[in-house]
Amino acid sequence: MKLIIFGPPGSGKGTYSRLLKERIGLNKISTGDIFRAEIKKGSELGKKVECYLKEGKLIPDEIVNEVVKRILDEVKDNFILDGYPRTVEQANFLLENYKIDAVINIKVHDEILIEKISARRICSNPNCDGNYNVANIQKVIDGVEYNLPPLLPKNDMRCDKCGSPLIQRDDDKPEIIKKRLEVYYQQTKPVLDFLILQGIKVIEIWMNQEPEKIVERLIAKLKEENLI
Fold first, then answer.
1. Candidate list 2, 18, 116, 120, residue with the active-site label
2. Does the annotation mark 169 as catalytic?
3. Active-site residue 13, yes or no?
4. What is the pTM (predicted TM-score) of this model?
5. Where do the domains of the chain lie?
């Protein structure tokens, strides 16, 4: 099974991909994770990619395509792509080289995303990956019922892993989130439209419950499509 997962910032793509890896053995391939690891290692690729990111530029398609192709040629099958393709050119390259079975498209109202991302709190210790959320979202929008409980630390606003204070990232503030969403919709809609035109099946699912429940529904949909 060869899948792509799309979804706006904060919609849980990475979490769903990880849970699908655990539940049905999919290889999770995240270009963001790959590039962050290369930057951390200080590799030639990492240095090249970091230059683009520091200047606020998109990483060129040829660099991204080369990295993804190298990984997919090793993996061969049973993968889910998170963060790729981001452009029509990347999508075209992907389909020229691999058969994609379906796209998972995560749907969520912007109002929910802004509330959820604004409530995210991370550990202030740069060497810790503690991640929490203080929002308790229980509401209905356009007939979609949201039940998203908070993920709170055991001690008030201190990380369970290392005890450091929790903080809000600058790019998790509402005005920044709105800009990130605008960019996402501008960039992603053409890619989704292109994939649909090429006959790729799209499986849509609402991000309105806890991740484990969303993944259960996703697996059920994949079975309905005879992909599992």
1. 120
2. yes
3. yes
4. 0.87
5. 2-224
